[in-house]
Write a structure and sequence with these properties.
conserved putative lor/sdh protein from methanococcus maripaludis s2 fold; OB fold (Dihydrolipoamide Acetyltransferase, E2P); Elongation Factor Tu (Ef-tu), domain 3; 46% strand
Length: 325
């Protein structure tokens, strides 16, 4: 068998063995898988007959021992019951909650004698931002930060006179609100407490609807969702899409969508039986974009590759092309 460039590099570096399955006498899909471990997931003996549940279009499979599979990052999951979510798509914008914003002013009129932080600095609650000499007492007093956050704006300079004007603008963006627009067609299904998946910058964050409030003069209401931004990944003003779980449906068998591969025009997963990884065509049902219902082709408790399945697909396709010549 000729190996793909990617797998060849792995073979040379790590000694992985990839070989075609033995077809012909003695080969049967009824064979019980051996018990071994890949990334902490154990194989299970399976007494069920597979012959009627999936076709035998593929006479090749990858054979990889457990240590090598772990080293190249192949991970498996166990097929079983799960849920499919019916989603309602919404869109909106990220905003900073009002209680996490502050406009800072001096308590008494006077001369600004010192400004301590610079714009962009992060300050703690109670930290001194400036010193002001009071006109009445001629005593210097501190102007402190009422909240922790980033110093966004500075409106005055050292040596200037202040008489109640805003000196600084602060904001704490560690928590943001996603304010999602809900139009009349979806209003009856959108409720507080429903799970929400916020999509932004190629990632997804899970939360739930905390409030539903009117938008003055607009033909929609706002569903407010708190978003943990302690890592600073998101920014106020950013546009986001969201999927609200309007319904959660229990199904008897689901798989992770990351496992699905297209092989010879069919949707397959790679089932692990001992050290052997076999492509298994599936009949699929409902999906929510993350998980998909399996109608046939896979049994509960079987193990299938969920991470790096493309490596196995590439090798099987390469072997098939070599056999054609």
């Amino acid at each position: 068998m000729k190996y793909s460039a990617l797998f060849l590099a792995l073979l040379i570096a790590q000694g992985m063995a990839v070989a075609p399955a033995q077809a012909g006498p003695g080969h049967s899909h009824d064979e019980k898988p051996k018990t071994e471990q890949t990334n902490g997931v154990h194989a299970h003996d399976d007494d069920k007959q597979h012959g009627s549940d999936h076709d035998d279009d593929h006479d090749e499979a990858a054979t990889i021992d457990a240590d090598m599979a772990k080293r190249v990052g192949i991970e498996v999951a166990t097929a079983g019951a799960g849920t499919i979510e019916r989603h309602i798509p919404l869109y909106g914008e990220l905003v900073i909650p009002p209680n996490r914003q502050a406009q800072v002013r001096a308590r008494f009129p006077g001369m600004i004698t010192q400004i301590k932080p610079a714009v962009g600095d992060t300050v703690k609650k109670g930290e001194v931002l400036a010193l002001v000499e009071s006109n009445d007492s001629l005593r210097t007093y501190p102007v402190t930060a009422p909240i922790a956050g980033a110093l966004l704006q500075q409106y005055a300079s050292q040596g200037e006179y202040t008489a109640g004007e805003t000196l600084f603008s602060l904001a704490d963006s560690s928590i943001l609100w996603a304010e999602l627009k809900v139009f009349p067609a979806a209003m009856d299904e959108i409720k507080t407490g429903l799970p929400v998946h916020i999509e932004a910058r190629g990632g997804m964050v899970d939360s739930q609807i905390s409030h539903i409030l009117p938008a003055s003069g607009q033909p929609y209401v706002l569903a407010r969702v708190a978003l943990d931004n302690s890592n600073g990944h998101f920014s106020a003003g950013e546009r986001v899409n969201a999927l609200v779980d309007a319904e959660i449906i229990d199904v008897s068998l689901v798989i992770d969508n990351k496992a699905l591969q297209d092989l010879e025009g069919k949707q397959v997963v790679f089932v692990r039986e001992g050290n052997r990884y076999e492509p298994r065509p599936l009949q699929l049902g409902r999906t929510d974009g993350r998980f998909t219902e399996v109608l046939s082709g896979l049994h509960a408790a079987e193990e299938y590759v969920v991470v790096n399945s493309y490596l196995i697909k590439a090798e099987i396709e390469k072997a098939g092309a070599a056999h054609e010549h």
